[in-house]
Design brief:
The chain is an all-alpha fold. It is built from four helices and no strands.
Length: about 250
């Protein structure tokens, strides 16, 4: 590439980049309008060819009629050379004929121009309608995209809320924290120990009952000492159970 061409290309490259989106947008319009333009151009060409043929035919007729008219005028002038009024009438007649021809040509040109203007106006209207349709389609597409985005966002929000609710709600199979487990285990152990103590007390009472039945009646002094001895035994058992609880808690 020559340096001149490279400079031109560098200068035109930003313009081309700016115009590229416009060209991309107008390309479908041009594709849609291309058959219409071709039809209109073909119609204009056919009209031009018809008009050219008519003009050529008129010229040929005029050329074919000219010698006849000239011969008629010459014969008429020869016949009426002595009458100047006849000469003036013939001249006026020829002038009128030329004026009529000019008027007819002007009228034909005006009609052609009007037809061309009407066709141009129709093309402009069609282009404007197509542009409006494209704009409406683009607006509809944008609205659809916005609606889809809103729906997606709403769905995501709903999913997040559901997840949060599920996380907040306690599940049946969900494991409890270690502190709660320890507390529950300690409570269970305490309950078990209390049950064992109750069982031991019941067994002790059951053991004492047959002994009391077997022993003979003792004097009143011994009977007075018995409840005191039972109370001491109960205190010892309670102290033993408390010591066991402390040991278990220390082990945990």
């Amino acid at each position: 590439m020559s340096p001149f061409v490279s400079r031109l290309f560098r200068r035109l490259s930003p313009m081309i980049r700016r115009l590229s989106p416009v060209i991309c947008r107008t390309s479908p319009l041009l594709r849609r309008l291309s058959p219409l333009i071709r039809r209109k151009t073909a119609g204009l060409k056919s009209q031009k060819t018809v008009v050219q043929r008519q003009e050529e035919e008129q010229q040929l007729r005029q050329q074919s009629q000219l010698p006849e008219q000239q011969s008629e005028e010459a014969s008429f002038q020869q016949q009426h050379q002595l009458h100047p009024e006849c000469q003036s009438q013939s001249q006026s007649h020829s002038q009128e004929h030329e004026q009529q021809q000019q008027q007819e040509e002007q009228e034909e040109q005006e009609e052609q121009e009007e037809q061309e203007e009407q066709e141009e106006q129709e093309e402009q209207k069609q282009q404007e309608e197509q542009e409006e349709q494209q704009q409406q389609e683009e607006k509809q597409q944008q609205q659809q995209q916005e609606q889809e985005q809103e729906q997606q966002e709403q769905e995501q929000q709903q999913e997040e809320e559901q997840q949060q609710q599920e996380e907040c709600q306690p599940q049946p199979n969900q494991e409890q924290p270690p502190q709660q487990q320890q507390q529950q285990q300690q409570q269970q152990q305490q309950q078990q120990q209390q049950q064992e103590q109750q069982q031991q007390q019941q067994e002790h009472q059951q053991q004492q009952q047959p002994q009391q039945e077997q022993q003979p009646e003792e004097p009143e002094q011994e009977k007075a000492l018995l409840p005191h001895g039972n109370a001491e035994k109960a205190e010892e058992e309670a102290e033993l159970s408390i010591g066991d609880l402390r040991r278990n808690l220390a082990e945990w």
